Amino acid sequence: MSDSKMTSGCMENCLLIGDRNRWKDAMFRLFKLGVATVAASLLTGCGDEDFTGAYRLQTPDDMTLVLNIRGDEADTFWETNEDNGVRIKPIVIIKATVKGENLYLDDEKNDHHWIMTRSVDGKGLDCLNCEALDFGGNDTVHWQYDPRGPYDLEQLVKEQARKDDAERNAAFEAMGKPESR
User: Fold this and answer.
1) Is the previous residue joined to 90 through a cis bond, with omega within 30 degrees of 0?
2) How far is CA 166 from CA 4, 15, 85, 170, in A?
3) What angle do CA 80, 65, 59 make, to 5 degrees?
4) pLDDT of residue 43
5) What would the pLDDT profile of 67-85 be if each residue is shown by its tens digit?
6) Distance in angstroms (rounded) separating the CA atoms of residues 51 and 77
7) How far apart are the C-alpha atoms of 95 and 107, rounded to whole Å?
8) Could you write out the three-class secondary structure of the chain?
């Protein structure tokens, strides 16, 4: 082999080794960037809790107040047990805002502001200022998680109206029929 061929071969190998080190350095930097990106995205997701769902509060007068949270809105409605079944009475739609581990519910029309946090059981909600609304007089009011929610309140009201109409029609039909003897 000639010296010129050995020198050029050595130069090529030396460049390849240098390229290999640069490649390793670039890959290590890319790996660190990927780790930082994944860590940042995981930390971003940890900030705000998802409170979507339905929660129930049994009041001292044996009525149930239902809080139905869907994103940035919450419906509230009363649920009562009557002779002809459960009755639903919508109350108000309020603004829901999540900040960290707290849920802020604002009914600006009636100037009611509730602050909720996840209860110890990890499912229900503890209302930190519901005593001001006189729901039992406790310092913290616990709302039980309802696994069937969130509800489509509009659909529930329509279904209730349909049942009421059917009962009313059945009563009118029974009134119009002569008694059989």
Assistant:
1) no
2) 103, 88, 14, 6
3) 85
4) 42
5) 999 988 998 899 888 777 7
6) 17
7) 7
8) CCHHHHHHHHHHHHHHHHHHHHHHHHHHHHHHHHHHHHHHHHHHHHCCCCCCEEEEEECCCCCEEEEEEECCEEEEEEEEEECCEEEEEEEEEEEEEEECCEEEEEECCCCEEEEEEECCCCCCEEECCHHHHCCCCCCCEEEEEECCCCCCHHHHHHHHHHHHHHHHHHHHHHHHCCCCC
Token readout for 10 is 């050595």
CA 15 to chain CA centroid, Å, is 58
Give the mean pLDDT of 45-70.
81
Structure tokens that stand for 24 in this block:
């390793």
The pair of structure tokens assigned to 31 is: 């790996």
| Distance between CA atoms of residues 78 and 100, nearest Å | 29
Greater confidence (140 vs 101) lies with: 101
Averaged pLDDT for residues 84-104: 87
